[in-house]
Write a structure and sequence with these properties.
Number of helices: 13
Number of domains: 2
Shape: elongated
Largest sheet: none
Strand content: under 5%
Structural class: mainly alpha
Order of helices and strands: HHHHHHHHHHHHH
Number of strands: 0
Helix content: over 70%
Distance between the termini: 27 Å
Radius of gyration: 23 Å
Length: about 350
């Protein structure tokens, strides 16, 4: 294993020498140190881990070198693959998917349990109140810990869920009376995101949030991905809970699964692709729920194509909006950025 590590260390050093000089002067020592730490960590896990690390870096570094030469901005931006962009630990992954569970799947499962147990109304109301307070506490604590740690990748869904509150508040003001609540919510949510980014750029205490988005735009996509929870509720708002809760639960579990795969993925393209696929599947589920419900109400025993077309249009419109939110942060790549930080795991 020592011989293999020595060979990989030498190959990595030779590949680093292919970077532009300005890039090597600024980042070369840091990259060598990080690679050495990753190599030692892999050695503790066995020869297969060392071989996989070597294969991964030999595969990715040539492309990173080419991008640096083509960009013409080697001294200003660090385009190389960073080791802290690798798969998150399972602890960080659990923290990253927790908002989707407590604000999505858990309320639906609670409703199903309460209905199955046939609890009294007062008990049901108490459970609902405790559930709401617990979810709010988890959101506040998660946001606070993420802030204290410099907004690592897992913390961005907490930011996204927190932004729904000003989104709802602004949507209910007379300022957006010219549109319905749904339209007002999306307008106010985008405004809240823009204001937060401007504040994070200007305020030193929130600066890590802005720097994290600039260093990896998919983290902003992950933040905005939480809107799939709101979108699914909007699609099903006119459907009784007795019909929509199982579908809602399925949609939320899909969203949670997408967050899990995102946290465990390394490449940016795969991360954003996972978010898009998860949004598509989640919206297909709630769209199918809406279509089957109103189709059943229209003419029992017969299919009504108009109902299915109406559900497809409503769901497809929201899906398009979600796709724009997830892909939109990629535009940040076209703006000049400051030297990047190395976020905490």
């Amino acid at each position: 294993m020592r011989r293999l590590s020595k060979i990989l260390r030498g190959m990595y050093a030779r590949l680093l020498s292919l970077y532009p000089r300005t890039f090597r002067d600024e980042y070369g020592a840091e990259l060598r140190d990080v690679y050495e730490m990753a190599l030692r960590d892999a050695a503790r896990r066995g020869v297969l881990a060392v071989a996989w690390l070597g294969w991964r870096e030999m595969r990715d570094l040539p492309g990173a070198v080419a991008r640096q030469h083509l960009s013409g901005r080697a001294g200003a931006r660090m385009e190389s693959i960073r080791f802290d962009e690798g798969p998150a630990t399972w602890k960080a992954t659990l923290a990253g998917i927790l908002p989707f569970l407590v604000w999505g799947a858990v309320p639906s499962m609670t409703w199903l349990v309460v209905r199955w147990a046939q609890l009294p109304q007062t008990t049901t109301e108490s459970i609902s109140w405790v559930s709401w307070v617990s979810r709010l506490c988890i959101l506040i604590v998660g946001f606070a810990i993420g802030w204290a740690k410099g907004f690592p990748r897992w913390s961005y869904p907490y930011v996204g869920v927190a932004l729904t509150f000003p989104g709802v508040a602004l949507a209910m003001t007379p300022l957006l009376a010219f549109v319905d609540f749904s339209g007002g919510y999306w307008i106010s949510f985008v405004l809240a995101v823009a204001l937060l980014l401007l504040l994070a750029r200007a305020w030193r205490l929130l600066r890590p949030l802005y720097e994290g988005v600039r260093s990896d735009w998919t983290q902003l996509s992950f933040c905005l991905y939480t809107t799939v929870l709101t979108a699914s509720s909007m699609v099903l708002e006119t459907i009784p809970a007795s019909h929509d809760v199982p579908w809602q639960l399925a949609s939320h579990l899909i969203a949670t699964g997408g967050a899990l795969v995102y946290m465990r993925s390394r490449a940016r393209l795969r991360r954003v692709s996972v978010l898009l696929v998860s949004v598509t599947l989640a919206m297909m589920v709630v769209g199918l729920c809406k279509a089957t419900y109103f189709d059943w109400l229209s003419v029992p025993g017969e299919h009504n194509p108009a109902v299915w077309w109406s559900a497809a249009r409503a769901t497809g419109g929201l899906w398009g909006w979600l796709a724009v939110l997830i892909l939109g942060p990629a535009m940040l790549e076209f703006f000049p950025s400051s030297p990047q930080r190395v976020p905490q795991a």
